[in-house]
Amino acid sequence: MSVPPHTPFMRLRGTHAAAQTISCADTSYVQMPFELMQYIPMQAVVGGVFIGAASGIYMLLAHRIAGNSGALKSVVVGPIETTKAALTLGLIATGSIMNLVLPALFEAPSAPSLGVYLGGFVVGVGTTLGNGCTSGHGLCGLSRFSIRSLVAVPVFMGCAIASATIKSGVYTFGAPVVAGQMDGKTVTTALYTFGLLAAMLLPAMLLQRKDIRDTYVGGWVGCCAGTGLSIGGMVRPSVITGALTPANFDSTLWVLFVTALSVTFVFYRIAQRSLVHEACAASGGVIDRKLVLGAALFGLGWGYTGYCPGPLLSTFGANPSDLATLLCLLGVINGMQATARVMASFTCDEKGNTSGAPAQLLEKESSGPHYQQFSCQLL
User: Fold this and answer.
1) The pLDDT value given to residue 281
2) Whether residue 258 has pLDDT greater than 70
């Protein structure tokens, strides 16, 4: 059977009559043309519910925005917060566990390249300049009625579509990916994981010290979001590029995003009625060039690599030895660090000397008008 070039890999438990099986590092992979790949809407919905619940419960219990790029930035740039570090570790750990339980959720390792590193670097620069990604702006920001997020989301979505389409080199509409059904093992895993996460959430109600409780909740949120990203298909770059390009349209991303946003929105309204002021954005959010440029760069890098920080961390946890994933993650980290240093170089004291570490500058950035507490009228 002839297989078209640049065909993505899909890791499967079995073989397909029309598929070409290859062997890679003692693991069986199946190389499948786009038209043979299936999109499973129920998995996208289930993944969206897990992700939305993670974002909403983080606000409800910890009064925090579940931004994956912000959590990673806290770890690699600073200031380090134990809550964000726990969220980051939760994403990585869940990727490792899900790969053991359901390895078919992840794609086979791709070839490392300079382009993968540069794409990750652009993602790191963009998320640092724009203070957010698909989780912080896309889910939490929109649920908070943030004006900044209302600007950032269409900018990075549009740039991601352009980037992915140009990379694919296909500008005509083809047949959409065929819808399939969720298999029994994935259903069982999702149900058991839901029960386990529900049980793990109970101790958070008993912890008295806020710092310990918030750290525990941060780790729980990372595990819950990581589960949703894995089951929902966000850890497969081909799913992202399929949703952003017209050739063989895959609606997994859009179904998951709408589901996650709906669930997050409901939790945020519950938090709002519970007088959690952070659930509604402060008025007077600043729309500046840094926000627009950051959102555009993030979209370009996301569309090119198929990764934003959250799924990238879970994919790294699933296969830490994958050089392409490592390069992309290194690029994101270097992009964040380089941007922080450049931003810090423009911060001067009254004598004209640079003052403060990059971490201090980012802390100041994060305390601006769009992060202030704001008590909005209850809906």
Assistant:
1) 83
2) yes
- Whether 108 contacts 9, CB under 8 Å: yes
Q: pTM for this structure?
A: 0.83
Decide: helix, strand or coil at residue 56. helix
DSSP designation for 58: I
Could you tell me if residue 152 is left (phi over 0), alpha (psi between -120 and 50 degrees) or otherwise beta? alpha
- Give the pLDDT confidence of 227-250 residue by residue, as tens digits: 999 999 999 999 999 999 998 889
- pLDDT above 80 for 216: yes
Mean pLDDT of 328-336: 97
Closest CA to 233 of 213, 245, 250: 250
- Which residues share a beta bridge with 21? 30
Q: Hey, what are 281's tokens?
A: 């954005």
3-class DSSP state for residue 39? strand
Bond preceding residue 320 cis, omega within 30 of 0: no
Does residue 19 contact residue 11 with C-beta atoms inside 8 Å?
no
User: HEC states along 259-323?
Assistant: HHHHHHHHHHHHHHHCCCHHHCCCCCCCCCHHHHHHHHHHHHHHHHHCCCHHHHHHHHHHCCCCH
**Burial (0-12, 13-18, 19+ Cβ within 10 Å), 377:** exposed
pLDDT tens per residue across span 109-123: 889 999 999 999 999
Beta strands at 27-31 and 9-10: parallel, antiparallel or unpaired = antiparallel
309-318 and 210-231 helices, crossing angle to 10°: 80
> Among 149, 164, 140, which Cα is nearest to 294's?
149
- Per-residue pLDDT band for 221 (boundaries 50, 70, 90) equals very high
